[in-house]
Amino acid sequence: MNKPKDPQKDRSEKDTHYATLRRQHRDAKRERGEIPTPSPKDRRKARAEDWKAPTLAPEQVFLYGLHTVRAALDNPERKLVKLSVTRNALPRLEIDENNPPCPLEIVAPQDIEKFVGPEAIHQGVMLETKPLPSRRLEALRDSPLLLVLDQVTDPHNVGAIMRSAVAFNAGAVITTQRHSPTESGVLAKSASGALEMIPYIQITNLADALGELHKLGFYSIGLDSEGPAPLEGTFSGGKIALVMGNEGKGLRQKTRETVSALARLDMPGAIKSLNVSNASAIALYASRHYLQAKAKS
């Protein structure tokens, strides 16, 4: 006896058949050059346009990328929540799968993209953590070199600045709570591990913070393209706090009035200003050179 046909199954098979025919017809047109073949970049762009960033709790941070996550796992001050990693990326992370540093979940790349976005270079690794503990300015009294940011807004710039600050052994990167990037995956990825190596201190009022640093013995120098003297001739004392301005507006007027001195990077070429991350690296190098010479004298 014949079994009665399942209408639902019949419709599903027809849908699949027609979808296959449409795909074959589309592929044939692409082969003839009648329609363009979408590139992986086009597909990523389309996914990025559809992606919406998830809403995170105040104490929730997602870090991604092998180097960034490895640095976070090695940081004893970092509170780990969950490690999400693809099967292919797990050996490259160099951890014991049977004894992970925190709860471990094997996921697909698409699962990570839901949190960090399709355009993020996550390398198959994502770490959920708590923010790093906050630091007080008074804990920096023994640091001879600090970097202060006056509303530098781009997390890529701040991440690059952090790398330079670590390279030149600065004691902290200090920035404002408003108009500055918070601790995030983008910031950490741009810093390439440096976020775990240097305090990132966000303060409420920059003028008040500079006043506190002055009481701790720091000589603050605001970098400005129209500064009255070259940076190398402006240094004074044994502790320096470099102050860098916003990408477009530079230092705010209140900051200009509060720093110990204003200075410029003396550039003989036709271009008289640099990206804030490049300017920070040059200023840090010059400051370190001055402090080392002073220590020897």
Read across the widest sheet, the strand sequence of neighbours is 7-6-5-9-8-10
Calculate the terminal CA-CA distance, rounded to whole Å. 105 Å
Instruction: Just name the CATH architecture of the largest domain.
Output: 3-Layer(aba) Sandwich
CATH topology-level name of the largest domain: Alpha/beta knot
Strand content: 15-25%
Q: Would you count the extended β strands for me?
A: 10
How would the blueprint of this fold be written?
Elements: H1 7-31, H2 40-50, E1 61-64, H3 66-74, E2 80-85, H4 90-93, E3 104-106, H5 109-116, E4 125-129, E5 145-150, H6 155-167, E6 173-176, H7 185-191, E7 200-203, H8 206-215, E8 219-223, E9 240-245, H9 253-258, E10 261-263, H10 276-296
Helix pairs in contact: 6-7, 6-10
Write up this protein.
Helix 6 (155-167) packs parallel to helix 7 and helix 6 runs parallel beside helix 10 (276-296). By secondary structure, the protein is of the alpha/beta class. The chain has two domains: 61-129, 60s Ribosomal Protein L30, Chain: A, CATH 3.30.1330; 137-266 and 273-296, Alpha/beta knot (3-Layer(aba) Sandwich), CATH 3.40.1280. The longest helix is centred in the N-terminal third of the chain and has 25 residues, at 7-31. It has a six-stranded parallel beta sheet with strand order 7-6-5-9-8-10, with helices on both faces. The model has no long low-confidence stretch (mean pLDDT 88). Helices cover 38% and strands 15% of the residues. The chain is built from ten helices and ten strands. It has helices spanning 7-31, 40-50, 66-74, 90-93, 109-116, 155-167, 185-191, 206-215, 253-258, 276-296; strands at residues 61-64, 80-85, 104-106, 125-129, 145-150, 173-176, 200-203, 219-223, 240-245, 261-263.
